Amino acid sequence: ALRGGAGAVRYVGPAGDAVIARFPETLVSDRGPERAGRVQAWVVGPGAGDDAATVAQVLAAQVPVLIDADGLRLADADAVRARTAPTLMTPHAGEAAALLGVAREEV
């Protein structure tokens, strides 16, 4: 996001110190998406682990969302379909196969 010219980037999640060490201009919070402050878009998934609640909170926000990595596994399909704001999913072949219920070779 920083390299792409996104402007202010707010990180919400674990390993905040590591994020600040690598990208000192990033705004870091561990308070959760619902209390993150002004946000114009979310990326959810990388590093989410088993945090389905955070993924659900992000999907409930009416701002653009990119869903990747663990977020693809944790996102509720009905919540994704119900979104009216722009939503982009970026699965690799294995994640796409799991989402589609097919073998990886079919993707």
From TrEMBL:
Superkingdom as given in the UniProt entry: Bacteria
InterPro entries: CARKD, Ribokinase-like
Domain YjeF C-terminal: start-end pairs: 1-107
Alphabetized Gene3D superfamilies for the sequence: 3.40.1190.20
MF annotations from Gene Ontology: hydro-lyase activity
Listed PROSITE patterns: YJEF_C_3 (PS51383)
One Pfam family named in its UniProt record: Carb_kinase
Protein name: Bifunctional ADP-dependent NAD(P)H-hydrate dehydratase/NAD(P)H-hydrate epimerase
The organism of origin for this protein: Streptomyces rubrogriseus
